[in-house]
Amino acid sequence: MKRLVVAALTLFFLAQFSLPQARAQEEKKKGGAGPFLASCCLGPRVGLELNEGQGVRTVEWVRLVFWPVGLPWSGYEGWQAAGPEGCLANVCIGPRVGNEFPERRIRTKEWLLLVPYVNVIPRVMISVEALNGKTMAQIEKEEKLKK
Fold first, then answer.
1. Among residues 56, 23, 22, 18, which one has the least CA distance to residue 37?
2. What is the pLDDT of residues 34-64, one digit of tens each?
3. CB 114: neighbour CB atoms within 10 A?
4. Which pLDDT score is estimated for 47?
């Protein structure tokens, strides 16, 4: 019961910060608390793509709240998008990484998310990029991620 309450409160607070913030960012400027929290909690590329105007996908919310259902679902999406590599990337790194694997390489910061006890540092670094208003398209150009 406690886990359900914690999950519901987490979802509520994320919705309070990210949804209105994402709408306001489209009208004003990029960055802010919404993309920061999305990158921290939903996946490394989610906040960066919120800055581009893309929304949060259903599978990302489901993966956050109902992990046993969301994890296979995101793996299946990755398998359809990029085969076994996309499936592993979606399950192990983040829900958008495998879907974008045919077009974009995986960043070094995203690879570091797989290292135990160190993975907090790259997650915060990616989230701060989203907070400052960077987009995935800018990072793709800077880091030459385009295949």
1. 18
2. 999 999 989 899 999 999 989 999 888 988 8
3. 11
4. 92
Give dist(CA 103, CA 86) in Å, integer: 11
Cα-Cα-Cα-Cα torsion 95, 120, 144, 71, nearest 10 degrees, comes to: -10
Tell me which amino acid residue 114 is: L
Owner of token pair 């581009």: 52
pTM score: 0.75
If one counts every other C-beta atom within 10 angstroms of the C-beta of residue 90, the result is 30
How many angstroms separate the Cα of 125 from the Cα of each of 36, 49, 58, 113, 131?
Answer: 10, 15, 25, 11, 10
Six token digits for residue 120: 């907090």
For the CA atoms of 145, 120, 16, 24, what is the dihedral angle to 10 degrees?
-40
